[in-house]
Structures are given as C-alpha cells and as structure tokens.
Amino acid sequence: MQFEELRFVCQQAAIDLTRTRGRPLPPTVVLPGPERTQLLTLPELPEEDEARHAVLAQLAADHVSLGGVPCWGFVAEAEIDGEDAVVVVYGARRHAPHLTGSRFDASGELEEFVASEELDPTALPFLHPLQHAVDALPAAGDVFAEADPKRGGPPGGLPVIP
User: Fold this and answer.
1) What whole-number distance in Å separates Cα of residue 156 and Cα of residue 107?
2) SS3 string of the chain?
3) Among candidates 68, 72, 73, which has minimal Cα distance to 138?
4) Distance between first and last Cα of the chain
5) Listed residue (4, 1, 21, 3) closest to 110, CA to CA
6) pTM of the predicted protein model
7) What angle do CA 55, 60, 65 make, to 5 degrees?
8) Most buried residue, 30, 33, 115, 123, by most Cβ within 10 Å?
C-alpha cells in the first residue's frame, strides 16, 4: 500500500462510517492491516487534550505497537467554518501525518474531500501517540527502507503493509 492509498482507505472509512453509524459520527481510529482494516470507535473520547492523549496512548500501545501496524488514520466529525464536516488524519512510519476533510451536503452525504496537506505538528496533539507508535516500530527487516525518499528510494513508493 502506498501513502496515497492510505489516504483513500481512511477517506473510505469515513464514508462508510457516515453511512452505517449515522450522526454524530463517533471518533474512530483506522488501522489498516494485511487481512482487514480495523475501525476502533472511541465513543467516550474526553474533551481535554491531555485526557485524549492518554486514551490514544493506550490504544496505540495495545493495537499499533503490539500489532506492528505501521500506519494509522483518525476520523471525526467537526465544525469547519460553521459547517458540519468530517476530518480525516492519517500517518505512516516515517511520514508526517496528513489532514483532509469533507463537508456534509444537504442530504447528509459527504462531499468530495479537499486535497490533503501535512498536519501542523502543533495541531491535534492528542494524536501524537499514534504517530510515535508507528515511528517506534522495530527497523529490523524494515520494508520501508527501500521506498524511503530520504534513502534514495522511489518517491511515493512507501509500502504501508508488509
């Protein structure tokens, strides 16, 4: 899986969650895996960033670190410029997290997602444990080394799932 494919998987998860779970959309962590993608809904995500950080740190330890999942996504409903929308953040080992979003149309469906951009490191600090967990995975036999642009690999060739 390429990094762009991770974006697609996370956006598709947002679309599926909107259609199946209804609104308000619960915050959900997306963990793509070799056999299936896990969607971990967080119905009781605290309001305070520190408490959110603790919840996601535990989730990262239990599901990312132990599972060896080298990528992640996060889907949540939000208000953007006074309109209801879905925000999707996704990251992978040695790739800065990216952010995209989509507004709800009049019928409650998601519009087209906006172009993704790199997430500012100070934004959404409660998501840092997810990125730290994927970055801390063992490097032995690292399938990312060949595709890492910093190591001279082909651009955009990051395999997300071994």
Assistant:
1) 36
2) CCHHHHHHHHHHHHHHHHHHHCCCCCCEEEECCCCCCEEEECCCCCCCHHHHHHHHHHHHHHHHHCCCCCEEEEEEEEEECCEEEEEEEEEECCEEEEEEEEEECCCCCECCCCCCEECCCCCCHHHHHHHHHHHCCCCCCCCCCCCCHHHCCCCCCCCCCC
3) 68
4) 8
5) 21
6) 0.83
7) 155
8) 30
Residue 138 C-alpha from the chain's centroid? 20
Residue ranges per structural domain of the chain: 3-136
Q: Give the Cβ contact number of residue 8 at 10 Å.
A: 13
15-51 confidence digits (pLDDT tens): 999 999 888 899 999 999 877 899 999 988 898 989 9
- Cα distance between residue 114 and residue 102, in whole Å: 6
What does the alpha-carbon distance between residue 104 and residue 88 come to, in Å, rounded to a whole number?
A: 14
pLDDT bracket for residue 139 (50, 70, 90)? low
